User: What shape does this take?
Amino acid sequence: MSDATSTSPSLQQNTRLDDWIRIDSADTITVRTGKVELGQGITTAIASIAAEELDVSPARIRIEAADSARPPNEWVTVGSMSIEHSGSAVRQAAADARRRLVLKAAEQLNADPARLMVEDGVVRAPGQTAAVSYWALQGGRPFEVDVSPEAAPKSFREHRVVGRRAQRIDLRSKLFGIAPFVQDLRFAEMLHARVVRPPTRAARLVECDPRPAEAMPGVMKVVRDGSFLAVIAEREHQAVQAAERLRTHSRFERRQPLGDCNGLHQRLAEDLQGSYPLIDGVPSEQPVPAVEAPDDAEHTVSATYTRPYLMHGSIGPSAAVARADADGAITIWSSTQGPAVLAPSIALIVGVPAEQVRVIHVEGPGCYGHNGSDDAALDAVLCARAAPGRHVRLIWSRQDEHAHEPYGPAMRVDMQASVDGQGRVIAWSHDVYSSTHMGRSLPSRKRSALLAAQEKAQPLPAPSPRPFLRPQAGIHRNADPYYDFPAPRVVKHLSNEAPLRTSSLRSLGAYGNVFAAESMLDELAAAAGIDPVALRLRHLRDPRARAVLEACVERAGPPQGRGEDSRRPRGRGLAFSRYENYKCYAALLVEVEVDLASHAVRLLRAVIAADAGQIIDPDGLENQLEGGFIQAASWTLKEQVGFDAEGITTLDWEQYPILRFDEVPPVDVVLLDRPDQPSLGAGEATTGPTPAAIANGVFDAAGIRLRDTPFTPARVRAALFGE
Assistant: This one.
């Protein structure tokens, strides 16, 4: 956000002041947002923005959770856009609400509005005892006007709340278990359900004997609709036990075997739906140019980098509560990232008018992407319609979550780059291959991405993958270099339908693309004998990018040597990116240790420098940057989805390990505040640089180049011994 106010896309679509701000009957102010809290701290940041513009204590602000039945409709919480879109809308709406309230106060106080001051919602003139509060002026009554562009938000020089560390408004309730996640919701006479899912997307239920499950204590009903199979019981443990018995008395026919992981990345490059060169960052339907090394190239390096399928890995399995009433109304409590999108999608699937389906957002364990929460919502609805008038809570098992959530797709990136005799990059080629990163369910009568919709007796087929020919979409996100390279060649390749179900995972294609590009820069630097930091600075024109890189290196300090134990050499690696080439700038330096006996990579320290424009809440921003690094470090060192012809093989935390608390290194964060500049999305800024920084650190420590994530001990050993 800057002094120069621009209209937020969210405000353009939700123009009424009452869509955003309500002066409550006494003492508090309700602020609405269509964005949802995923653990990223958006509610705290928006509360700070509103408190700043309204001149009230943040403690008076109440944030109302996203609800499909009321505005504002902000579609889906994705792409690190909550502060940019919702935050700027709330800022303008709050500034307008303050302006209108001060004008009302001026009439009551018979004073010049320009002389009035507001302190914690109380309006008075300097030197006068007479005053009037927001609640006396407007409490409990709507504004009934559009947000006016005439209201000028404060200059950053006037800020007393924004830019200072805020107390998370949701932290106390989470620490003490006061505010439940969706998995913890309780309603009177609530029923419990479990789904018995086909082993793979292509499998179909061919036989089922429900009688043994129905005879169990507490079981109310077995629900079957085609291949959708679930059990409803009075208590959760009864539903769990009955679902297992129901599974043993059901037979699924497997169709279209998944194959296996071997040769996965080769198949990505061979089985293509289409290839699209990027022209000024936009994929285009044009011939793909050849990869060439210039005649004056002093050094040319080629390499391939890969990532496997990745899980969101939510600690709490997906869940939802649904209630279907006799009049046809359906209410759903879900941790979905898009209540306003999920509601009409489910309405079309079950054949009711859209206005009869309401989705209320309730926080979940978080996932930063599209996990199974939307699927669980439809599962719960199908069960609730079989038990009208009762709340039904449906929770997936851990095996369901690992086997059936939409995964982050596998990626392959082929790179080739050249430098001349002066150490300048003169050729840059980047080919990225992947299946779709866009798998969310959108309202449609013909297709649905929701699992149960595909399993019903009258199924809706899954949407067919299609290329997104717009800047910074899924596969090619951050493929276009931010560096000043002459005529970079960048091509997006959309693979045909993947063997596994895929959708968006935090940062989408940026993780794989930045991993490849920032690793290639270090490989070029090593080949040409150039300092990798100097090579980057040589090709960065943007002064803010240079400042972030320099701040990271300065905070890291000089290298500390290789370590005292020669069996555990140490090194450091650096990587930089600007997320989507227009959001948060982030540079990351990681110090690593390579154990030459166990072949494990250990993270010793991380330094992050970031420029997210105007900082709303420094603590929240640091948490996002640290969290992005930690999650991406887990992907880089440990995570990969395993599968064979029979299905997913990584069905628990032993088979799909994640980074543990004792493996997280100290993280030092440097924030470059730009209070006169717009706030920039930062939630995904550090995921891309993380694998490259770790890989570059391993090379610095042990002289081996790791190009395939995860960097398991087996891969480290293979690199060390040329296996």
Summary: Confidence is low (pLDDT under 50) at residues 1-5. Residues 264-310+410-437+461-495 form a domain with the Aldehyde Oxidoreductase; domain 4 fold (CATH 3.30.365). The first strand starts at residue 21 and ends at 23.
